[in-house]
Design goal:
By secondary structure, this protein is of the alpha/beta class. 15% of the residues lie in helices and 31% in strands.
């Protein structure tokens, strides 16, 4: 998330009431998760295991819970609870604004686009030309939808990321300020849920087709011309490259990449990154020919045991 205008390090420190290391006027342009940070961004870290990764990332401002040596050209915000203060910054720069109409006055809707009754279109949503939004669709704030997109009844675009920190009193949610971006010629079936990014975008590429009842997690990027069948569950921060096919009830873990033109057969669990141009099956995931050979070999074990006994 980029701020509406640049802020100084001192201004940011005052917002969250914390100490800082660096020049008062050090420029701060936005805030992002570590996998999408750029120079000028704030990234937060609250565990020693990840200190080096955050300090060496592209982010130039590190919100951290310990005074450490500040890398050259960067600045630190020293907080007793970086997770809490990252949420404070989200509330400050991207506060939730309630709606009082079904279609926000700030929404931009293109030519020949049809919005069926009982749908909700939030603040600052952009919908392109020649789209059909069927009944009872909810499109949360800031979503961007291209041209010739169809979204079927009951789908929700822009719900919160499933991202929590465990505390003694319960789970604390990391607030979401990102967007959902749907490119041209995408079809989204009935009852799909596509979560917004925490600070970046959840993206579905041009020409991709989603069946009914699909979950797409926060900050996931689905490439162009992908086919995704019913009841697929895609975790957060997954990269699905172009022309991938995921058949029914496939599930993925977070932070992985599925290579271009890969095919994952039904009910498989994608537990690791997989290369493109191959067919996969099973849990944990394996290339299908290797898996079938393994199963055939296992079936021979009783015969082998019988021969050994004789």
């Amino acid at each position: 998330m980029k701020f509406p205008k640049p802020h100084t390090l001192k201004q940011i420190a005052n917002i969250i009431n914390c100490k800082f290391v660096g020049d008062d006027n050090f420029q701060v342009l936005g805030m992002n998760e570590i996998h999408v940070v750029e120079p000028g961004d704030i990234v937060f870290v609250d565990h020693p295991k990840y200190y080096d990764k955050a300090l060496q990332s592209a982010a130039t401002i590190v919100l951290i819970n310990k005074a450490v040596e500040c890398p050259k050209g960067k600045a630190l915000l020293i907080s007793d609870d970086p997770f809490r203060d990252f949420n404070k910054l989200t509330d400050f720069f991207k506060p939730f604004i309630a709606s009082n109409t079904s279609i926000s006055a700030s929404a931009k809707i293109g030519k020949n686009t049809i919005i069926q009754p009982n749908s909700f279109i939030g603040h600052n949503v952009t919908i392109g030309d020649d789209c059909i939004i069927h009944s009872n669709v909810s499109i949360y704030d800031d979503a961007v939808i291209g041209n010739n997109v169809t979204i079927h009844a009951g789908s929700v675009l822009g719900a919160n990321a499933f991202y929590y920190k465990k505390r003694p009193e319960g789970y604390d949610r990391l607030k979401s300020s990102g967007r959902v971006v749907i490119e041209n010629h995408v079809d989204i079936g009935a009852g799909c849920t596509i979560d917004r990014g925490v600070t970046g975008d959840t993206t579905i590429g041009e020409g991709s087709k989603l069946d009914n009842l699909i979950q797409v997690g926060h900050d996931t990027v689905i490439g162009k011309k992908c086919l995704i069948a019913s009841q697929v569950g895609i975790a957060g921060c997954v990269v699905i490259e172009d022309e991938v096919t995921l058949w029914g009830q496939v599930g993925t873990t977070s932070g992985i990449t599925i290579g271009k033109k890969a095919v994952v057969q039904g009910q498989s669990g994608v537990t690791k990154s997989i290369q493109g141009n191959q067919v996969y099956w099973g849990t944990p995931i394996q290339e299908v020919r290797s898996k079938l050979k393994e199963m055939a070999s296992i079936k021979q074990i009783p015969n082998i045991i019988k021969q050994l006994k004789n």
